[in-house]
Amino acid sequence: MTIAMAEKQDAGKRGHAHMRWAFACLLLLAMLQSTPAAYAAPSAGDLYRASGFKMAGDAARTRIVLHFDREPTVKWFLLRGPHRIVIDLPESVFAIDQGDLKPRGLVTGVRYGHLEEGRSRLIISGKGPFAVEALQVLANETSPGFRLVVDMAAASAAVFDTALSIQADKTGSTSAAPKGDRLVATAGSAPRKFTIAIDPGHGGIDGGAESAAGTIEKEITLAFGLELKALLEATGTYNIIMTRDKDEFLRLDDRVRIARQAGADLFISIHADTIGVRGVHGATVYTVSDRASDAEAKALAERENLADSVAGVDDGGENRQVVDILADLARRETHAFSIRFARSLVGQLSSAIELIKNPHRQAGFKVLRAPDVPSVLVELGYLSNARDEERLIDPEWRKKAVKSISSAITGFASARLGAGG
């Protein structure tokens, strides 16, 4: 082949290549022009920025906070199976530390991400049913931007289902729960039974107090709690919930959560402590108060409140503050009912077993802080006292004590149900 012929052939190949390139460019241009504007990806400047995710609280009540650079419009709805709150947000860029998403308190999981054009979604899963006490967007007081604040509190399945039912009636299609998650109301439901949560103190790795002879508090409280449960169930009048029915460790806030999610009308925590003065003996009934009635009550509450630390649980100072602020909203009326039951209980116990001097006392027990469940802590006796220890392990003594508590419950439940509460 001559040089001239080769050059002519190369020129032809280059011409075909240029034609293919031009055709590809025209095809790409046509595709871009035919793409609807709605599918164009938004620029980073158009997106909201979500950052600074935080959770505080415990298994009874938890607050979630998420910060935004601008004021977001939000919609939310509930789902069950598992229990969740779903929050729809403007399309956002999430700058969240994954360590802050670790399950905590009432929250078992957090998911977030892009949902569709213009929308993102935040999903928070709860440890059982809960109530959304508040969900609001607030302007930051000392810095630019806004924050989404969600207040969740442990609640009964009935409370959660009622919220689902209201939601199904009132929300639009963009935030209504799927049909399978909606509550179907039924007529002629049976009368509600008075629900009692029995809380045998300590358990598992936390043995509680121990006598010189080796009697362990967690075993006394569980045996007594099961006997009380059996007597109350035999009446056919009550619905009984045990926070624990075996030798297991429970956080203090989980004990409160279990009572609230069961819709408890009364919470009774059973204990048997020790004290440095061997001569002190007899049973005591405690109700909650920020100010202890005496030094002994204060010291006991401080010991009981350290139960979580036995298992290495750290609740953090900020959590206590948040929980206390939120719980104060509903505590006053409940506290009055707690005192009413405590006085009735002292009256019934005094005719059957020996009580300590000034048997109704008050202190800041964490396990009594459910804001909507009347609660008492019954100190059956002191394992540091030989006479009390003999009584605590005596089946006949326990039978008398159980019967007295049952009688006090009967009067309290009748009054509460008769008043419609």
Concise account of the structure shown:
With 421 residues, the chain is of the alpha/beta class. It has 8 helices and 15 strands.
Task: Write structural notes for this entry.
It is built from 8 helices and 15 strands. The radius of gyration is 31 Å and the shape is elongated. It folds into 2 domains: 135 residues, Immunoglobulin-like (Sandwich), CATH 2.60.40; 225 residues, Aminopeptidase. Helices cover 36% and strands 27% of the residues. α3 packs across α8 and α6 crosses α8. The strands form 3 sheets. Strands 11-10-12-15-13-14 form a 6-stranded mixed beta sheet, with helices on both faces. A 5-stranded mixed beta sheet has the order 5-1-2-9-8. The chain has a 4-stranded antiparallel beta sheet with strand order 3-4-7-6. With 421 residues, the chain is an alpha/beta fold. The longest helix is centred in the C-terminal third of the chain and has 34 residues.
Global geometry? elongated
Record field, number of beta strands: 15
CATH class of the largest domain: Alpha Beta
In terms of quaternary structure, the protein is single chain
Helix percentage range: 25-40%
- Which whole number gives the mean pLDDT? 83
Low-confidence stretches: 1-8, 21-41, 172-189
- From the 3D coordinates, which CATH architecture of the largest domain would you assign? 3-Layer(aba) Sandwich
